[in-house]
Amino acid sequence: MTIDWDEKKALLQEPNIAKVTQLCDELMEKKPGSTVPYIDPVHDEDECRIVSLQVSPGKGTESGFVSHYNDDEAARRATQIYELAELESRYVMPWNAYPWVRDAGMPSALSVQEKTDGLRPFRQFLKINSRVSAIIAHGTDASTFLTLFEKTYHSSLKNSGIKVYKATALGGRAFAVSEAKQEELLAKNVEIYKDAMQRAGIQHL
């Protein structure tokens, strides 16, 4: 499937994604010279019930987008999960704990400073996507980021009606295992998304 990224750029100001696009622009302004990949406009800030929280923008975001249509293994796995769980893109939205593109060669784990830098943007992101009822944290860093988020804002996501699910990262070392184990991890991720969908009252495709 060939994606026309210019076509997607033309949709970034559409009502279903405009506020998230604006947030990405503001984050780049705050760190001059930085890049925050835009969220693929297949997602919808009014319909979003599930946040798919990754750690930081991966190689595939060279497209200029955080998208499950990107050309990297994590994106391909996200596509598989959405298909197997029968989850429509409009009900889910990806975000990164640290939304800026990191320099090549940095350790894969986020520093405390990077996690801290990502807190306010995530809070703004949740305000835009006000109907979210589940956050799926992919990878340990995404989980510890959410713990820091709750401590910082003295807020329990649970009290806001948001359930946090812990899942494996979709790329990198998490899937550097045997094929059988990969299948097992994928199936577990699908189950988590199905549970989140059921909680949110999302109908299967």
Shape: globular
CATH class bucket: Alpha Beta
Percent in strands:
5-15%
Task: Catalogue the unreliable spans.
Answer: none
CATH architect. name: 3-Layer(aba) Sandwich
The helix tally amounts to 6
**In total, how many domains does the architecture comprise?**
1
Range of helix content: 40-55%
Please write out the topology.
Layout: H1 5-9, H2 18-30, E1 38-39, E2 50-54, E3 65-66, H3 73-85, E4 92-96, H4 112-128, E5 134-138, H5 140-153, E6 163-167, H6 179-200
Parallel strand pairs: 1-3, 2-4, 2-5, 5-6
Helix pairs in contact: 2-4, 3-6, 4-5
Walk me through what this model shows.
This protein has 205 residues and is an alpha/beta fold. It has one domain: Uracil-DNA glycosylase-like domain (Uracil-DNA Glycosylase, subunit E, 3-Layer(aba) Sandwich). 41% of the residues lie in helices and 12% in strands. The protein contains six helices and six strands, in the order ααβββαβαβαβα. It has a four-stranded parallel beta sheet, with helices on both faces. The chain has a two-stranded parallel sheet with strand order 1-3. α5 (140-153) links the parallel β5 (134-138) and β6. α2 packs antiparallel against α4 (112-128). The longest helix has 22 residues, at 179-200. It is globular and about 45 Å long. The two termini are 20 Å apart.
Summarize the entry for a quick read:
The protein is 41% helix and 12% strand. It contains six helices and six strands; from the N terminus they run H-H-E-E-E-H-E-H-E-H-E-H. It has helices at residues 5-9, 18-30, 73-85, 112-128, 140-153, 179-200, and strands at residues 38-39, 50-54, 65-66, 92-96, 134-138, 163-167.
